[in-house]
Each structure stands twice: as C-alpha cells, then as structure tokens.
Design goal:
This protein is α+β, with helices and mostly antiparallel strands. The protein has one domain (about 5-170): Cyclic Phosphodiesterase, Chain: A. About 30% of the residues lie in helices and about 40% in strands. The protein has helices at about 15-30, 55-65, 100-115, 140-150, and strands at about 5-10, 35-40, 45-55, 75-85, 90-95, 130-135, 155-160, 165-170, 180-185. The strands form two sheets. The protein has a five-stranded antiparallel β-sheet. A hairpin with a 2-residue loop joins β4 (about 75-85) and β5. The longest helix has 17 residues, at about 100-115.
Length: about 190
C-alpha cells in the first residue's frame, strides 16, 4: 500500500524582515474583529501549484519535472493587501506581489503542462501570484475588514529572493498545518 502525502509546490519566505512585516499586517487585519484564521507567519509562502494527496512515488515524478523548470533566483517585491474573490465577498486575505510576478508566472507556465502530463487536472483557479495571510470564516465585521484592506492596499512588505523551488508536504493537525520540504530545486545565481 502506498503512503500518501498532501503536497504543493512553492517558494518559501526566507526573509525575517518580510515575515515580521507580514505579521504586522496580520495584526491590522485581526484588529478589525473579522472572523478570520491567520496563517502562521512561518507557513506563509508563494504557492505555485497545489497537488493534493499524492503517493511518494508521484512525489518523485513531480520532482523530476521540477528539475526541468528553467529559472535563476529572482527578487520578489511583496506589496499591498487585498482579498479573494472580492471586497463584497471576501474569503482570503492576501499580500500582493509586484516585481517577480512575471517570473513566478513563468515557473507556473513551464510547470503546468508537465504536471498535467503526470495526470493532474488543470487548476480551476488558474495562477495569481500572492501570499495568503488569512482565511475568512464568516461575514462578521466585513465593513471593518474592507476598510482595513482598502487603507492598506499599498502596504510595503519589502523585497525577498525566490531561490529554491520546493515540493512541500502539508500535514493537517488540530492546531493547524505543519509544512515540511520533501524535495527542492535551487539553481545557482547566474
């Protein structure tokens, strides 16, 4: 019997200053009294592709395809707060990505056909570069949340370096998910 792991592909946030600023923005969002679940600061990352439950054998196949992705480490400027899908129906609070968004899209565009060739269905949401910082559970204090998001639409989190493309494991626990790296691709800086 094969062991399954819940997996996704991402770039981690490896800059302590950016993590501190993300935590400060989360505090602002929490102070609205909205019914939210904050993402643990150490778990915030740039998801390229959610894979779901896969076997360890499939993880090896995904890793072989990851190694074919062409990129060099690049800067990512994290800027602005927003929500998906809209301010009138917020479900996710995100930090935006300005510089580096094209490189992240390029990684996704190279990866997607390779992942689909392994049997994964196309991602119905497509790809939108962002960092999820909170999930919204109900409409409680929605106007206050919308005001906070609007006021902080240009929040500057700083610039980080996207260096290692990782296949991550997500272990769901009662106190929240625990992420670990299964495999990584770290090209040398040119």
């Amino acid at each position: 019997m094969s062991q399954f792991v819940r997996a996704f592909l991402a770039f981690d946030i490896e800059n302590e200053d950016a993590k501190r600023k993300l935590g400060a923005a989360q505090k602002l969002v929490a102070q609205t009294g909205a019914d939210i679940k904050l993402v643990e600061t150490e778990n915030i990352h740039m998801t390229i592709r959610f894979l779901g439950d896969i076997t360890l054998n499939m993880a090896d196949k995904v890793f072989e395809e990851m190694k074919k992705i062409q990129f060099t480490p690049f800067n990512v400027c994290i800027n602005g707060l927003g929500v998906f899908p809209s301010l009138s129906y917020p479900r996710v609070v995100w930090a935006g990505i300005t510089e580096g968004a094209d490189q992240l899209r390029n990684v996704f565009t190279q990866l997607e056909p390779k992942i689909q060739s392994l049997g994964f269905t196309p991602d119905p949401k497509g790809f939108s570069p962002h960092l999820t910082i909170a999930r919204i559970r109900s409409a409680r204090n929605k106007p206050q949340l919308a005001e906070c998001i609007t006021k902080n639409a240009k929040y500057d989190f700083g610039t980080i370096k996207a260096q290692c493309f990782r296949l991550k494991r997500s272990e769901l626990t009662p106190s929240g998910p625990i992420y670990s790296t299964l495999k990584e691709v770290c090209p040398q800086q040119q």
